[in-house]
Amino acid sequence: SAAQQVLTGQNPLSTTTLAAGLSGATVGTLTNRFHPPTNPGITPTLKPDPPAGAVVDLYHGTSQSNAASISMNGPDLSQSRANLDFGPGFYTGTNRGQATRLAAARFGDEATVMHFQVAQASLDNMSGIHFNGPSADWESFVTSSRGGATHDFDVVSGPILANPAALAEGGALRPLVSGGDVPEQVSFHTPTSIDVLMEGLQ
Fold first, then answer.
1. Do the Cβ atoms of 60 and 111 come closer than 8 Å?
2. Is the C-alpha dihedral spanning 15, 41, 54, 187 positive or negative?
3. What share of the chain is helix, strand, coil (3-state, %, to 5)?
4. Distances (CA, A) of 59 to 11, 39, 78, 200, 202
5. Cα atoms in the Cβ-side hemisphere of radius 13 Å centred on 159
6. Where does the chain show beta strands of DSSP type E?
7. 143 burial class (0-12, 13-18, 19+ CB within 10 angstroms)?
8. Residue 39's CB: how many other CB atoms inside 10 A?
C-alpha cells in the first residue's frame, strides 16, 4: 500500500505477503538493521553506526533440555506458536536480564539462557522490518500477527508487547519496560535466518 515505505538496500526486498491490517508498517531489507537509513517516512535511531566487524549480542531464555536440543539441531520453526508479537518464529532479545527473568518464570530451576553473537553485516543482508520503538506501525503489526497474519521476512525486531489482553479488550498496547529501558526482541522466521543465528551460538 502507499502507506508502506519500501526500503532498498544491499538486497531487494523479498516478495512480501502482508495480511490486511499491516498497512503503515515500514518494510525493507535490514540495511543497517538497528540503524535504519534515512528514507521518506522513516525516523532514524539516534544510535551511532556500528564499527566495522560489529556483532550483536542476542539471548534466548529456555530450559536446559530445550537448549541442548537447539544447540544440536537448531530451532524447529514448525513448533513455534502462531499468535506471537511478530508471528511464528524463534525469538531472541538484546537484554540478557530480561531473558533470564522470562526463563526463570517459565522453567524454574531448569532455566538457562542461550547466547548468540551475530555479525551486524549478516543481519544487514537479510530482509526484515525493524520498529525503533512503540508506534502505530508497531501496534498494527503486532495486532495483525497475534491475529494470525503471516509474512515472509527473515527477521523482525522491536518492542515486546507487555499487555496482550488489551487486544481482546480493545485497550491501548503497551511495550514492556524493564529497568527504565524498552527491551528489544529480535525474531527469526526463515531457515536462512536460523542458519545465520546458529553460526553465532556461544
1. no
2. negative
3. 30, 25, 50
4. 27, 30, 20, 11, 10
5. 23
6. 5-7, 26-29, 55-63, 90-93, 111-119, 127-130, 155-159, 184-188
7. middle
8. 15
Pairing of strands 90-93, 127-130: unpaired
> Could you tell me if 17 and 151 are in contact, meaning their C-beta atoms sit under 8 angstroms apart?
yes
- Give the global pTM: 0.77
Instruction: Name residue 90's beta-bridge partners.
Output: 188
Could you count the other beta carbons within 10 Å of the beta carbon of residue 52? 7
* pLDDT on residue 52: 64
Question: What confidence score (pLDDT) does residue 27 get?
Answer: 43
Nearest by Cα to 83 from 135, 150, 23: 150
Joined together, the cell numbers standing for residue 110 give 531448569
Q: What's residue 59's pLDDT?
A: 97
Report yes or no: 175 and 161 within 8 Å, Cβ to Cβ.
yes
pLDDT at 34: 38
- Give the residue ranges of the chain where pLDDT is below 50: 1-48
How many angstroms separate the Cα of 202 from the Cα of each of 30, 49, 71, 115, 197?
23, 24, 10, 6, 10
| Spatial separation of the C-alpha atoms in residues 166 and 97, rounded to whole Å | 25
Q: What is the DSSP string of 113-152?
A: EEEEEEEHHHHHTSEEEE-SSS-HHHHHHHHHHHTT----
